[in-house]
Amino acid sequence: MDNLSDVFMSGVAIIMLLVMFCFAFMCFYMMIVNIIDKFKPASKLMSCESCERTISTNAYVCPHCGQHYGNSSAFSSITVCFFCGCVFLFIGLAGVSLILEEYGYDLLNLIKKLFN
Ligand SMILES: [Zn+2]
């Protein structure tokens, strides 16, 4: 039953890698969304959460009541997204190379068995 557990482990590893690549993709996607958010012109308006007066969506602070908005952290979230994306991508690629190595090793063993 060694072969069955090998197949199961390979399946689990491949699913984990797919999840890693999905996380990497999501991080890079969020980074791009953040960059677009940061550089788009301040044309949209919204109502303030605390005083409900009309303010710009790019406002860091409401000019009427002083309510703070998280826009100033846009740069750090871009950096965090980029960093996380790189880490997940690296783990994914490292896993792919490990799996390929594993299959190459198995293939070699199989050939050896065939010739013996
Ligand atoms: Zn306000």
Automatic annotation (TrEMBL):
Regions crossing the membrane: 12-36, 78-100
Domain C2H2-type: 48-68
Keywords annotated in UniProt: Membrane, Transmembrane, Transmembrane helix
Organism superkingdom: Bacteria
Membrane among keywords: yes
UniProt entry tagged with the keyword Membrane: yes
This protein's name: C2H2-type domain-containing protein
Species of origin: Paenibacillus taichungensis
